[in-house]
Amino acid sequence: MDVLEKIMENSNVKPTAMRLLVLQYLLNKNVAVSLTNIEDYFDNSDRTTLYRTLKTFVENRIAHQIDDGTGVTKYALCEEHCNCEIDTDLHLHFHCNNCNETICLTEHKIPHISLPEGYVAENVNLVVKGVCDKCSGQ
Length: 138
What we know:
By secondary structure, the protein is of the alpha+beta class. It is about 30% helix and about 20% strand. It contains five helices and six strands.
C-alpha cells in the first residue's frame, strides 16, 4: 500500500481516483492552497467534485481550512496524528503580504486560551501577516 492510500485508510476515507490526485497535489505543496488553485491545476475536473473532496478531507482530518484574512479559504494537510483539537493540534499560520502565500507553521502551536465562563470555543485561527523568508531575502 502506498503512502496516499495509507493516509486515507487511517482516516477511513475511500481512496477514489480524484481523492488520490488531490491528496498527492496537497502533499507536493508547502503552502496552503485555495479551491481555485486546485481547480486550475486539474483544469478538466469538476469544481463540485474538487470541493467535495476537500470537504471530505477536512471532515476526516486529512486537511484543515485556513482563513488567512484574504476572503478565500485555503487548505493544507494536517500533521500525522492530528485531530484538529483546539487545545493540542492548532498551529500558527503566516500570510505573506508580498507573494500572497499562506504557510502552516506547525512547530508553533497556538497556546490554550482560557475563555470566560459560558463561552465555548469551536475554532481558533491565528494568522500572522508580514513578509516571508523568501520575499525578505533571508
